[in-house]
Specification:
With 74 residues, the protein is an all-alpha fold. 53% of the residues lie in helices and 0% in strands. It is globular.
């Protein structure tokens, strides 16, 4: 289960605000949150960067929200 809904709600953000970040409709973003459609890797990376976490955390593969160390110039 994706953690994007919890992260959004914890920061008092709306689906509309996140849909603008991802350049999609609010309806599409809502479907990402419910798992009705699969979020593409590019938008997943955008969200991980926005929330300062890892893609693994967003996907529920780890409970550690701390992002991985970044490679310089990556």
């Amino acid at each position: 289960m994706l953690k994007i809904r919890d992260l959004r709600e914890d920061r008092d953000l709306t689906q509309k605000q996140l849909s603008k970040l991802l350049d999609c409709t609010q309806q599409t973003y809502s479907r990402y949150e419910t798992g009705e459609i699969t979020i593409d890797i590019y938008n997943l990376i955008k969200l991980a960067n926005f929330y300062h976490t890892s893609v693994d955390y967003l996907l529920g593969l780890t409970n550690d929200a701390k992002p991985y160390p970044r490679i310089k110039n990556a």
